[in-house]
Amino acid sequence: MKRAVLAFLLMAVAFYGPAGAEEKVAMGRKVYEKYCIGCHGEKGDGKGIAAPDLIVKPRDFTSGIYKFKTTPPGSLPRDEDLLRVIDQGLPLTSMPSFRLLPGPQKEALVAYLKSLSERWKRERPAEPLVREVKAPDFVGTPESVEKGRSIYNVRCAVCHGPSGRGDGPAGKNLKDRWGNPIRPANFTYGLINRGPRVEDIYLSITLGVDGTPMPSFASTLGEEDRWHLTSYILKLMGKIE
Amino acid sequence: MERDDLVYRPLVIAHIIAALVYFGLVLLGGLAYSLQFLGKYPFPGIEFLSPGRVRMLHTNGAVYGFITNGFVAGLYWAVPRLTGYKVLNERLLGWFMFWALQAAVVATAVGLLAGFAQAVEWGETPIFVDPFVVVWLLLALVQFATPIYRHGKERSLYASNWYFIAGLIWIPMVYIMGNYFPQFFVPGIAGAAITGTWIHDAVGLYVTPIGWGLMYYFVPLLLRKPIWSHALSLLGFWGLAFFYPLQGVHHYLWSPIPMYAQYAAVFSTLALELAVVTVIVNFFMTLRGSGEVLKQSIPLRWMMIGIVNYAITCLQCAIQVLLTTQKVIHFTDWVVGHAHLIMFGVFGFWILGFFSYLWPRLMGREVYSRALDEWAFWLITIGVETMWVDLISGGLVQGFTWWGLNPWMDSVRFSIPFWFVRTITGLMIIAGFILYVYNIYMTSRKETAVAFQPQEA
Amino acid sequence: MERFATFALVAGILFFAFGTFWQAVAPWLTLRGIPMKSMDEVAREVPPEFYMLANQYPEEFKKYFGEPNERSFKEALELGKKVYIAEACWHCHTQQVRPVSNEEFRFGRVSYPSEYANAMQLPQLLGTRRVGPDLMRESGRHSNDWHMAHFKNPPAVTPGSVMPSYPWFFDEKGRPNKKGLAMVAYMQWLGSWERKPMYALKGGE
C-alpha cells in the first residue's frame, strides 16, 4: 500500500512538477507565436511581416545581442532584464508592454528567446553592473545642470547635437550592429527608449546601448559626473527649469 | 363605405416591396461584417466597403429601411380600417412620403459608405440628411394622426390608436434630441446621457409603440376575437409610456454620467418589466383556447413567436440592466445578441408576420406554397434564437476574460467559435429569407384570383 | 379618459418631457459647471509623439501638415476625429475606463467627466462595444510606427487580430498620407493628459 502511494506521488511529481527546460521552451514557442511572431519573425531574426514598416527594427534574437539590460556592455542580459522589457515595453519604439501575460508564460517566453541564439549555450550573463540605483539629491539642481552641460558639450553633443535633438554632426548616417540606419536619441521628445525614470537616463549613460554606437561611460566618467549629465539631459528634455 | 375601400393598396404594396429589398441588403451586410471576424471579409481593402462602414449600413438599414417601411405599410393598412377614415392624403402626400423615405434611406446608405457618418449610435444618418428625416416624420404624424383624430371625436379610441398617437408624436422629438444635441450643443458626458436616451428612445418610443399598436390590431384580427382585457391594455400602455423614456442612461452604466441618472435608469427599466408582463399576459390570454389557429396560420405564428421573444428580451433586460451584471456583460457580444433578438426576433418577426398576412389579400391570390412558408419560418426562427444564445454566451466569455485580466487577444481568440456559429445562423436566416421572398413573388404571379372576405377589425 | 388629447399630451409630450429631463437634461445641468475646452485649448498640449511623427515621416509630414506645432496638431486632431467617426472605429473601440471589471489595471485611470468636456468629444465617442481594447488611455502605449504598421495590416503586428486593414491611410509607396498621419496623432492624443509623470525627481514614481 505504502509503496503504491509513494509510486503515485512520484508520478504526480513527474507529471505536475516544475516543467523541464525543453517543455518550457516549447511552451515559450507557443507564447511567441501568439504575441511576438508578427514583428520578430518566424525564426526570431527580427524579420517579421510587420518589420519593414517599423522604424526602429525589431530585435534579432539570433544574434544574442540585447540593447537594454543591467549587465556590462557585451555581456548577455539577465532574465530580469528581458522580463522588464516584456513587462514595460520600450517607449517610443514599437515594442509595447505585455504586462498582462501570465507570469509562467513570460518565463517560458524568456526561455524560448534564449534558445534562439547559440550564445546562450557558450556564455552566462555577467553580474549586473548596477543593482539598486537611486538618483542622489543633487540631481536637477542648477549647479548639477551646469556641470552636466560642460560634460555634455564635450562628450555627447557630437552625436546628440548641442540642443539634444539628435542632430550632431557625427550622428548622421549611423548604423547599428544589424546594419539598420539609426539616429541618436532626441532628448526634446522628453522620453528615452530605456524607460521613464530618472535612473533610466543614468543607466543608459552608464551601460551604453549594446549593438548601437552608444558607448558605456562607466569607465570614462565618474559616477557623480554621470549624474550631472543626467541633470543636464533632464534640462534638455524640458523636465526641469 | 366598405372597409376595404378605405385602404389605398398600391402604397401598402410599394412599402412592403421596399422593406423586403432593404431587408435583403441588410442581411447581406450583416453576413459580410460577420465574415470579417473570421478573417474572410469578401471585400478587403476597398475603402467604400470597409467593414466598419458596412456595419453602420447593417444597423441603419434595418431600422430606417426595413422596419420603417414595414411599419408604414402596416399603418396604411391598419389605421384606416381601425378608424373608418382614410389617411390624410394618399395619392399626393402618400407617394411623396414613399419616395422621400426611399431617397432618405439611399442617401444615408451612400453617405455612410462615403464616410459622412455621424457618431451617434442608431443615428449615423449623415448630418445633411437629418433635417429631411425630421420633416418626413412630421408629415407621417399628420398623415396618420388625422384619421385617428377624426375617429376619436366620435368614440373612445382602441388600444392600437393610443400607441400610434404617442409613437407618432414621440418620434420627431426623439429624433431631434438624439441627432442634434450631442452633435452640436452638448459635449462629452452630458452628450453621452443624451445619446443613451436617444439610443433607447429610438427603440422604445419609435419601434416599440408602433409595433405594439400593430399587434393590438393584427393579433385579435387573426384570432377573430377581441383582446382579453381592456384594463390590462390600459395598464400596459401607461406603464410603457411612463417608464420607457426614463431609462436612456442604462446604455452607459458605470460611465462618468452622474449616478442618480444611472440609478433612475436601472430602476425604471425594472419597473418597465411589470408593464411588459401585463401586455404579454394580455396577448397570451387572448390566444388561450385558440391554440389551434397557431398551427394553421403562419402569420399568427410569426407574431406570437415575436411576442415570446419580446418576453425573453425583456426578462433578459431585467437581468442585464443590473449594475452587477453590467460589470461583466457591458461592451460584449451579449448586448449584440440582445439587440438582434429585439430588433429582428421581435419587430422583424411582427413585420414578416403581417406581410405574409397582407400579401395574399393585397394580391387577391392564395399563398403560393404553404411548405415554403413553413421552411422560411423555421429556418429564420431557429437561426435567430441560436444566434441569440450564441452571442450572449460569447459575451459572457468575453466579459469574464476581460475581468480576469487575460491579455486582450485572448478575448478575441476565445470568441472565434462563437463568431463562427453566428455566421452559420446568419446563413440560415438568409436562406429562410430567400424562401420567404420567393414565396411572396410566386404568390403575386399566381393566375387564379380569390376573393378574401373583408374582415372586421 | 381615452381621448385623443389625453394620449397626445400626457403620454406623448408630458411623459417624454419628464423622462428626458431625468435622463438627458439633468445630467447636463449637473455637469454644466465644467468649463468646455475649445479645439485651440485642446491642441495646446502637444504629446512628444507628434514631434516624433514629424521626424519619422519628414517628407509626408511637411507636405500635409508643415511644421509640428499647436496649429498643425489641431488640424491633425480634427481630421483624426473625422476619420475615426467615418470609419466607425467607435463601434469596436470604446473611450471610457469603467471603475469595475479590473479595467483600472488593464487600461489606466478611471474616466472622469472633465476629460470629456472638450470639442473633441462633440459628439461624444464613449462607445458601446469593445471588440478591440479601450482607447481612452492609448497615448504613448504604442509608438507611431507601430500604429502605422497596425493600420496597414493589423494581424501582422497583433497575430489573430480581427481589425480590418486601412490601406487608404497610405499612398502608393506605402508611406502614410494625411489621413494616416492624422489618425496616429489622434491615437497619441487620446489620454495624453493622463500619462504618468515622466522623470519626476522628488516624490515621483
Structure commentary:
The complex is a heterotrimer of chains A (241), B (457) and C (205). Chain A is mostly helical and 241 residues long. Chain A has 2 domains: 20-122, Cytochrome c-like domain (Cytochrome Bc1 Complex, Chain D, domain 2), CATH 1.10.760; 142-236, Cytochrome Bc1 Complex, Chain D, domain 2. Chain A has helices at 2-16, 21-35, 37-40, 79-88, 103-114, 119-122, 142-155, 157-160, 198-207, 223-236; strands spanning 174-175, 181-182. Chain A is globular and about 75 Å long. Chain A starts with a helix and ends in a 5-residue tail after the last helix. The longest helix of chain B is centred in the last third of the chain and has 38 residues, at 408-445. Chain B is built from 15 helices and no strands. Among the domains of chain B are: 1-126, no CATH class; 290-314 and 329-457, no CATH class. Chain B is globular and about 65 Å long. Chain B is an all-alpha fold. Helix content of chain B is 79%, strand content 0%. With 205 residues, chain C is mainly alpha-helical. Chain C has 2 domains: 1-32; 39-194, Cytochrome c-like domain (Cytochrome Bc1 Complex, Chain D, domain 2). Chain C has helices at 4-31, 39-42, 48-56, 58-64, 70-86, 103-106, 144-152, 154-157, 178-189. In chain C, helix 3 (48-56) crosses helix 4, helix 5 (70-86) crosses helix 9 and helix 7 (144-152) crosses helix 9. Chain C is elongated and about 70 Å long. Chains in contact: A-B, A-C, B-C. At the B-C interface, helix 3, helix 5, helix 6, helix 7 and helix 8 of B face helix 1, helix 5 and helix 6 of C.
Name a few traits of the molecule.
heterotrimer; A: 241 residues; mainly alpha; 10 helices; C: 205 residues; 2 domains; 9 helices; elongated
Instruction: Output the structural class of chain B.
Output: mainly alpha
Pair of chains with the largest interface and how many residues each contributes: B-C, 95 and 75 residues
Distance from first to last alpha carbon of chain B: 14 Å
How many individual helices of chain A? 10
User: Can you count the helices of chain B?
Assistant: 15
Strand content range of chain A: under 5%
- Range of helix content of chain A: 40-55%
* Distance separating the two termini of chain A: 78 Å
Q: What value does the Rg of chain A take, in angstroms? A: 21 Å
Q: State which percent range the strand residues of chain B make up.
A: under 5%
Count the E strands of chain B: 0
Instruction: Could you tell me the CATH topology label of the largest domain in chain A.
Output: Cytochrome Bc1 Complex, Chain D, domain 2
The counted number of beta strands of chain A is: 2
Order of helices and strands of chain A: HHHHHHHHEEHH
The helix/strand class of chain A is mainly alpha
Helix content bin of chain B: over 70%
Radius of gyration of chain B: 21 Å
CATH superfamily of the largest domain in chain A: Cytochrome c-like domain
Global shape of chain B: globular
